Amino acid sequence: MRAFRLSFLSVLLLACVGSQVFARAKAVPCQSVESSPQGILIRYAVPIESKPTLSVVFGAILSREDRAPVVCDEDTKAAIDLAVNEVIGRQTLAQMEDSGHLESVREEMESKLREALGGDNRLALDVRRFFIAMTEW
Questions:
Q1: For the residues of the chain, what is the DSSP string, one character each?
Q2: Would you indicate the residue range of the signal peptide (predicted)?
Q3: Dist CA 68 CA 38 (whole Å)
Q4: Sign of the torsion angle spanned by Cα atoms 34, 125, 46, 83
Q5: Residue 54: what are its φ and ψ, rounded to 5°?
Q6: pTM score of the predicted model
C-alpha cells in the first residue's frame, strides 16, 4: 500500500510539474515594455499556430489618473506578463478576427491588469491607446 501511495504521489507531482512546463511553453512573448512620459507602454505579439505567418500584435499604455509615473520594475513586468498570458494566451484566431470579441478582450485585459498591479484605483489603463491588430510576416 505504501508503494502505491508513493507512486501515486510521484505521478501527481509529475503532472503538476508537467502542466507548469506546458503552460510556460505556450506563453505569449513580450516584444517590449517601455517607460514613457505617459506611463508604461507594453507590446506583445501572439503567434497564431494555425497560420504561422500571422501574429496578433497588441499593446496598451498604463498610466495613473494622477499623472504620477508608473515604475516598470521586474515585479511590475512579471505582473503584466501574467495578466497578458491569462487573457490573450487562450484566444483563438477566429476570436481575434471578431471585432466584437476584441472589445471584450480589451475589457478583460483592463480588469486583469488592474488586478495584477495591486488593484490601485489610481492606476488607469488608457484604453484609447489600446491597440490590437493582425500582422502578416
A1: -HHHHHHHHHHHHHHHHHHHHHHHHTPPPEEEEEEETTEEEEEEEEE-TTSTTEEEEEEEEEEETT-PPPP--HHHHHHHHHHHHHHGGG--HHHHH-HHHHHHHHHHHHHHHHHHTTT-TTEEEEEEEEEEEEEE-
A2: 1-23
A3: 9
A4: positive
A5: -105, 145
A6: 0.51
Contacts of residue 63, Cβ cutoff 8 Å, sequence gap at least 6: 38, 39, 40, 70, 123, 124, 126
Task: Calculate the average pLDDT of the chain.
Answer: 60
How far, CA to CA in Å, does 34 sit from each of 29, 42, 43, 85, 124?
15, 7, 9, 18, 17
- pLDDT tens column, 3-22: 434 344 343 333 443 333 33
